Amino acid sequence: MFFPFGAMRPEDEVYPRGVVLAASRMLDIMTFGADWRGFVPFGLAEPPTGPLSYKLESVFDFYIPPLLTYEEHIQQTGASKSIGSIIDFAFHTPSTALGSLDNQTSFFVLCVLVLIFRAFKRIVLPIFSSIGRRAGRATHGADWETQNEIRIKKFGEYVFRLLYHTSVSVFAVWYFWDKPWWDPSKGGTETLFLGHPRQPIGPGMAWYYLIQSAYNIEALLDLLRMSFEVRFSPVRIKFSKTCRGDFREMFVHHIVTNSLVIGSSALRFNRVGSMVFLVHDLSDVPVDLSKLANFVKWKKTTIACFVTMVLVWMATRLIILPFVIYKSILFDSYLLVSDGILDPVYYYAYAWFFHVLVAIIIFLHLVWFLMMIRMGILLVTKGETHDLTEHKMGEDQFGDVPSKQKES
After folding, report:
1. Which of 245, 266, 342, 391 is deepest in the core (most CB within 10 A)?
2. What is the pTM of this model?
3. Range(s) of the domain holding residue 342
């Protein structure tokens, strides 16, 4: 049995707490290997008992194998540098540098994908917003259009999100359908860690991770853009009218998500990450549908989407994620030590990072679920379809339709 924040060696020697081991490693990196331990008081860095006395080498030096670079691919295949060899490297060769986000090749591709997302949204969002404008005008009349400009803009954003989440969900279900970590009869979640870190990273997995990472980074940038206004003379920053009602929760979620994406990719936990991605994307589809219906105040459609959203959210984010995926992260991950080549001290130094961040995400899912329950209570008791994730104080200040029109 192990403990995420500290544990016993097989020889009954006590390791420092995992966070202490990680802090010690971080100080070594920040000081470029300088002997900072000689300046630590109270014997905290004195070997062998000082908790800061452990000096960990980089886990990449002996445990995480390097991935195939484009230059190495050229040498192995004897091909010349050309569009054809780039395509072969990127889309037909497993375990390339694109399979991890900690190198120049994947970082460059990631930056390009973020720019593509932003450029694509700049083109399509006005088109999607015009669809919402016409739908709202047809249902509620011209007065609704003039009173709901912010709602119309957000409608376009959620059409894009719906298309994205649907597309990646369809691809993920198709691509991961026969993978053993989803099938208990083939080994189940233990296969997430068996053979690590030399599990092959197929091109599909590599691009799935790159696209998901680019989307999450762009979503964080877009959240900040929509949430703040910068004024000059004098310079000041304030929340904008388009700021989400759950801005704090969503901001924390994006920071944690991007940290997990980058960390899991660098340490080759792509299989676990793909499971987390999939349950999120599947549950986001009914969320997007519910928001689209609510933005134009189609009440009956909103109710149907809302019920579907709650049920799918419970199944994916409150059952599968904590009791299947997170359970495996907590317990099956020790196979890295017991059946692998990883020194336990490295496990205790880094495992807590993933344990804590995934726990934060699960907690945020519970917070949002409670928001859904509040929205459901409003819907049943008052007949109101206010989205508390958009505006905590209700939506009337942003324009609404007359009560007689809300039954559409």
Report:
1. 342
2. 0.86
3. 96-405
